[in-house]
Amino acid sequence: MNKFDITYFHGPTPEYIVRPEVIADIAAAGITLVPLSADAATIKRALPLLDKFGLKAVVHDERMNGVYGSDDVAGADAAMKSIVEDYAGFDNIVGWDLVDEPSASKFPILAAMVRALRRYSPDCETVINLFPSYASPEQLGTPDYRTHLEQFVNIVDPHYLSYDHYHFLGRESRNAIDSAEIDERERLIRLAAENTEDRAGFFENIEDVRSVAAKYDLAAMLIVLLTEHGPYRNLTRAELFWEVNMCLAYGMKRISYFTYWEPGHDDFWRWTNAMCDTEGNKTRHYEDVSVINRTIRAVGDYLFDKKSAAVFHIGSTEKGTRLFEGYANIKSIKGDHGVLGCFSDGSFYLVNRDFQNAQTFVINADTPLNVFRDGAFARLDSTLITLPAGEAVLIK
């Protein structure tokens, strides 16, 4: 990663991604990095259109599926070289998207693909999205999640860490899993999703990823829930703010939404309320995300080159987190339901951990504080800060 980007997982179908009006909508929403997953001909039609709107792309060419599925480590180099050479001349490709949620058994072939891409496309990143912590050992291919992360880094040598974690459950009506009509991988994903309350473990998961990223000096990205599907409910704007702001507080260098475009019909997942429906019509979430992206754009840019130094919880803790008891020049923070992300330049990002109600915090510091507004810091007149549900403020 070389800058703060906002992207998504699952976008317009090949029929729509080559339409200028569709790409204009993507750019207008504040998306800066577009994943392209299609055949080579479609991708080559889309790339110049993205360029006209100032958008970069990460490419998943369908031929990569064959390389990944073959487990032919020896043949991966030549296969990836051929794919890269096929896109010579397109200068808005910044990455190659290899696979979503691999088992540890696939790490050797991924390592071979990454090595080849480092050789033949040295200025581009590779994208491999990992399971969340609620995946089973059977899915992970390792006894536990932390082992999965460590093996991934040590075997694959990735450019950065990416994972997804969908926290907000409780959709009222759900469909039973029909294991006769789906493959084993999909059955396990559906079983992991089954619940009726908000899933525990969001913070333990992000703490693990942040810890491993820091240990190996890697950037990290979280794909956050957006689209209502299966047991996952239709999110409010405050809940979307909550997800994005937690990413920033924990030092994530890129934000990704799941999904931009509504996937096709599925009797189990029953997709709805993406940013756009299957024909590109904008939903309420399009406006929600546009507002959020405008709000956090400058903060993400500012924090991009700052290291995450520490993260604390205010008022109470969850498994894996630390209670704030003073840090650097901040002696105390009075309040409930807060998260404080501290950065290497002395700035800190204070997030309201309550996604239903506003919360007030009182900061006691040894030195004057400045608040980030309109892309710059200005003196904070009061140490009493009230944040709307799920929202945040950058202070230095």
Give me a quick take on this structure.
With 396 residues, the protein is an alpha/beta fold. The chain is 34% helix and 24% strand.
- Helix % is 25-40%
DSSP summary: helix tally? 12
| H and E string | EHHEHEHHEHEHHEHHEHEHEEEEEEEEE
**Average pLDDT rating:** 94
The count of strands amounts to 17
User: What structural class do helix, strand and pairing data support?
Assistant: alpha/beta
| Residue share in β-strands | 15-25%
**Shape label:** globular
- Are there runs of 5+ residues with pLDDT below 50, and where? 173-180
Taking the sheet with the most strands, its summary is:
8 strands, parallel
Distance between the first and last residues' Cα:
25 Å
The radius of gyration computed from the alpha-carbon positions, rounded to a whole number of angstroms, is 21 Å
Strand order of the largest sheet: 1-8-7-6-5-4-3-2
Tags for this model:
396 residues, alpha/beta, 8-stranded parallel β-sheet, 12 helices, 17 strands
Characterize the structure shown.
It is built from 12 helices and 17 strands. By secondary structure, the protein is α/β, with parallel strands linked by helices. Mean pLDDT is 94; it is low at 173-180. β4 (93-100), α6 and β5 (125-130) form a beta-alpha-beta unit. The chain has helices at residues 14-17, 20-28, 40-52, 63-70, 73-86, 107-120, 137-140, 145-156, 184-193, 202-215, 237-249, 284-303; strands spanning 5-9, 33-38, 56-61, 93-100, 125-130, 160-164, 219-225, 254-258, 308-314, 330-334, 338-343, 348-352, 359-365, 370-373, 376-379, 384-387, 392-395. The longest helix has 20 residues, at 284-303. 34% of the residues lie in helices and 24% in strands. An 8-stranded parallel β-sheet has the order 1-8-7-6-5-4-3-2. It has a 4-stranded antiparallel β-sheet with strand order 9-11-12-17, covered by helices on one side. The protein has a 3-stranded antiparallel β-sheet with strand order 10-13-16, with no helix packed on it. It is globular.
